[in-house]
Specification:
This protein starts with 22 loop residues before the first strand and ends in a 16-residue tail after the last helix. The chain has five helices and six strands. Helices cover 28% and strands 15% of the residues. It has 158 residues and is an alpha+beta fold. The protein has a single domain, classed as CBS-domain (Roll). The strands form two sheets. It has a four-stranded mixed beta sheet. It has a two-stranded antiparallel sheet with strand order 5-6.
């Protein structure tokens, strides 16, 4: 059996740019969480952390959409009523491949990164992985046709 050749997906997550997560404390109202996500622009999750940064849970845009839209819900109830406790997390020394695997499940757009004590260090989004991969193979990616079966007969433009 031949050994698998390491790829860029085997690099540790610390090679990726990571984002500062939107965080709230336990007891924050759902209304405030919705406001934070709306104001944040690109963030589609709110991470619930203790004062020391320990991750307690996550409330995603999908969670809110599935639970709040079309229902009578008290938006003043605490985030703990809808958040997912013990979300999957990754560490900076784990391979990029693990983040890709979580994202492919369709359940994670924001993958939380924590340290050994469970403190939230940052978040990786699909675009962060894509940028990293694009930088690893710029010429190959830039020269691919839009559709793999497509053959360009002449160059575009004037």
């Amino acid at each position: 059996m031949a050994a698998r050749v390491p790829s860029v997906a085997d690099e540790q997550l610390k090679v990726l740019a990571r984002r500062d997560p939107l965080t709230v404390r336990p007891g924050t109202s759902l209304r405030d969480c919705v406001t934070r996500i709306h104001e944040g622009g690109t963030g589609d999750s709110v991470f619930v952390t203790e004062h020391d940064g320990t991750l307690r849970g996550v409330l995603t845009e999908r969670d809110m959409f599935s639970e709040l839209v079309g229902r009578e819900v008290d938006l003043d109830q605490p985030v703990e009523t809808l958040m997912k406790i013990h979300p999957w997390t990754l560490h900076l020394d784990q391979p990029v491949r693990h983040a890709i695997d979580l994202m492919q499940t369709g359940r994670y757009r924001n993958v939380p990164l924590v340290d050994e004590a469970g403190r939230l260090l940052g978040v990786i989004r699909p675009v962060d992985v894509l940028k990293y991969l694009a930088e690893a193979f710029p010429e190959e990616l830039l020269n691919l046709p839009p559709r793999p079966h497509q053959r360009i007969k002449e160059s575009e433009g004037a």
